[in-house]
Amino acid sequence: MKYILTVFAGIAGVVNALATPDLGGRGAPPSYSGAPGGSAWDLKKFSSLVIFGDSYSDDSRLGYFISNGTPPVGWINPPNNKSADGGYIWGEYVVRYARVNLYNYAVSGAVCSNNITPRYFSAIEADFPSLAQYEVPAYVADSKFVKPDGEAFIEGSEEERVYAFWDGTNDLGYYAFVQDEQVPGTDLTTYTDCMYNQISRVYANGGRYFVLFNIAPLDKAPIYAAPPYDVGANQYWPDKPKNHTLLNGRMIQEVATVNAIFKYRTPYAVEIKRRFPGAKVAVFDVHGLMLDIYNYPSDYLNGSAPLDVSGYANHCNTTGGDCVANPSPDSFLWWDELHPSEQTERVIAKTFVDVVKGASKWATYWG
């Protein structure tokens, strides 16, 4: 931890001059741009979205793995109205709001790399597919695939395509960092290195517009929450340890650490090291956005039941069966112990569209 804090101090000192003061207001981050004159994000047209991530973003890809094995090159990932949030994921709402093409490579259960936090999944008799070992290579293969009619599988040009990276929920979570079950010799900086390495791989394949989501407020999710909002053994973590206060404290530290790295390392990598020449990178503060929902639910949630940001809508037993869902899921921040509700994901989708317009208070822009 001392090493990590030293890294923060060094990076913070280098990029401090690039930041503007906090403008305040409901805990929202300041609205500023990383480039002189506010020109850090110059996307003229948004026509395609490519997503890498986990169950917060997965449509149907893990389901295909379970039923059929690895999807073939050129597989079309269908929308799923029974995804991990109980409905459609945020990417499907971006399609509706912005009328773009979606290429979704997110896989439920994914981590950045199985060389850091591997998690075995008996239904596929292997570790969950990760960004490094599966998702990014799958996209690269698809980007070179030509359909039988002679058209490219991935439509449009790089000038109109945005790549979204939202990972970390599993890397930081149970059976991983929060329980010290990462591969020996790895730490949170190994994880963040992995995330920037995946951006580098997509950049090397031609990508130029990137949105890096920071980590959601996992310490507020019921599965990691402190008493009295905590849950015990559950469908995701049937052998959850009993010291929930300790787990909550660990998660608070992990989320804060990774988000600080993303905040300071991104401008360092883009503006100083020039790691991605010609690229534009936005850091989407989804953590701050979800905390705003937590603190001001009436501004975001719209169900008919009393608004609830500490409980969750869908209750199942420890094997994932006997589920009982609240008839008003849009009243909840959380769908279940771990996943945001569909209404939360609608809010995230609307905000994401603002982010790619280049003027969102929930993003910082670099490049």
From TrEMBL:
Keyword terms, alphabetized: Hydrolase, Signal
Entry GO MF terms: hydrolase activity, acting on ester bonds
Signal peptide: 1-17
Keyword Coiled coil tagged: no
PANTHER family named in the record: GDSL LIPASE/ACYLHYDROLASE FAMILY PROTEIN (AFU_ORTHOLOGUE AFUA_4G14700), GDSL LIPASE_ACYLHYDROLASE FAMILY PROTEIN (AFU_ORTHOLOGUE AFUA_4G14700)
Protein name per the record: Carbohydrate esterase family 16 protein
Organism listed in the record: Extremus antarcticus
Top-level taxonomy: Eukaryota, Fungi, Dikarya, Ascomycota, Pezizomycotina
